[in-house]
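--- STAGE predict ---
source: upstream dedup step, 1 unique chain passed
mode: sequence only
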Amino acid sequence: MARRAPRYAEAERNDRALLEAARKVLAVDGAHTSVAAIAARAGVGIASLYRRYRTKEELFQHLCALSLGQWIQAAEEGLAHDDAWEGLVHYVTAAIEFSAGALGPLAGTIEVTDEMAEKFTRSDELTKALVERAHEAGVLRADATTVDISLLVEQLGKSSLAEQFEARGRTDLAEAASNARHRVIAIALDGLRPGRDPLPGTPPGPGLLAERW
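--- STAGE serialize ---
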């Protein structure tokens, strides 16, 4: 067991690095992203990666499951807040910060595993609980749905200005870009408050996000 512990810790570190790298590379290359590009970005050897994951699809399935796990953790932390609004804000902000929507380009290109389906269901249940609690507390506009919140997180969680500057080596603008992102998140959250003009169109159906997969 003692011998396996360091290997397990290394595997976890590699997973985190691969997930972060996949999010950044997918934001640029989309579904055509190569495993080699992700491995290079993460600093992980392509040979060692393929010793652990037999195929590109298996790697992407694992990364999707990891990402869904982060959605779940953010939602659970949000529900742990006594204040319904602050709990929702925590969830939305945390999910955007770890770029929750960056793996969206993989939708429909890989088979959904049982683990992915189970975690998606759990994540959806927790998000619904956050939204229902906020509605009951009167702190969330009545016409904002769970799908609206998830789409908001996904859209704001895509390639950020800070990441774009980072890719160009403009670290001098990192702080300004991060500040700008926080302002945009705050503007979006303010739009979820009650008392605003009605949202346009009809509420998106509950299967809209899942149908992509």
